[in-house]
Write a structure and sequence with these properties.
- By secondary structure, this protein is α/β, with parallel strands linked by helices.
- It folds into 3 domains: 87 residues, Udp-n-acetylmuramoylalanyl-d-glutamate--2,6- Diaminopimelate Ligase, Chain: A, domain 1 (3-Layer(aba) Sandwich); 197 residues, Hexapeptide repeat proteins (UDP N-Acetylglucosamine Acyltransferase, domain 1), CATH 2.160.10; 32 residues.
- Helix content is 16%, strand content 28%.
- It has 5 helices and 38 strands.
- Strands 8-11-14-17-20-25-28-31-34-37 form a 10-stranded parallel beta sheet, with no helix packed on it. Strands 10-13-16-19-24-27-30-33-36-38 form a 10-stranded parallel beta sheet, with no helix packed on it. The chain has a 9-stranded parallel beta sheet with strand order 9-12-15-18-23-26-29-32-35, with no helix packed on it.
- The protein is flat and about 90 Å long.
- It starts with a strand and ends with a helix.
- Homotrimer.
- It is an enzyme of class 2 (transferase).
- It comes from Agarivorans albus MKT 106.
- One of its GO terms (molecular function) is N-acyltransferase activity.
Length: 341
Amino acid sequence: MTLSLGQIAEQLGLTLQGDPELVISNIAPFEKAGAQEISFLTNAKYKPMLATSKAGALILSKNHADAFSGNTLISEDPYVSYAQLAQLLDTTPACASNIHPSAVIEDGAKIGNNVSIGASAVIESGAVLGDSAQIGAGCFVGKNAKIGAETKLWANCSIYHEVQIGQQCLIQSNTVVGCDGFGYANKQGQWVKIPQLGTVIIGDKVEIGASVSIDRGALDNTEIASNVIIDNQVHIAHNVMIGTGTAIAGTTGIAGSTNIGRYCIIGGGVGINGHIDICDQVTITGYSMVTKSISEPGTYSSGMPTQANRQWRKSMARLSQIDEMHKRIVSLERKNSAEAD
């Protein structure tokens, strides 16, 4: 797909300085963009490189536009404009086209208008697929599950019984929604399974990465609000609640019955304990371990940054001595206090 700079400016609501007839065929990295390509700049430290850019056009803020003599699209937020342009030029194929002859659709399933279902997909009885939903090859949609209009499931997703997914969601391959939560009782060393009687409810415009596992609730439901984005290989345990606009990076694990607020940002590899509350607008940096509730917005971190091995060994040796050092300090404080008296 190609667009002229004039078309791009009009559709994105940007101010164009340059040739409206120039045809753009691709978005390219800033340092590699050629004469028929467009790129963008957000980091001020690269501003000196604008003078040598060979891009056909650049998306720039007002503060950077004076440093580039070529075609420029002026944006209040170049990164957002880049995202919007990428959507216009997106060539990603549909998850499925039409309804493949090998798809299994049981009696009692309700299929909306313009729904596409890929090869070997299974839609069980009572399931509802909204208008223009796309169900990729090999997907499973269980009994009485509901998939909203224009939602897309890439290949081999499994949506268990009774799960509800809203409109315009996107779920990448191999993700499982509604599997059993980790619920067991122990009777004299034997594990007794607790049936998971709740379900998963997902709002609108939620995007979920590949190989994500979202457990169904034990009694109440696991709930993910609208406009949440979840990266690859995340685990969300039973009865977790995630608020609107929250973003969760890859390999994060969230234990059961935790409530996460609105517009939180959770870095990669974070571990979050169960039965705690995290308030709105909290940022947790990568590989942190959250063991207690967080009641104030802000940025939270734990863990130790990488060090040279020799320094790390010294730090660990000193860490092992902290308890003894504490005892000595307390003893000295008591001694000094007694002498002062």
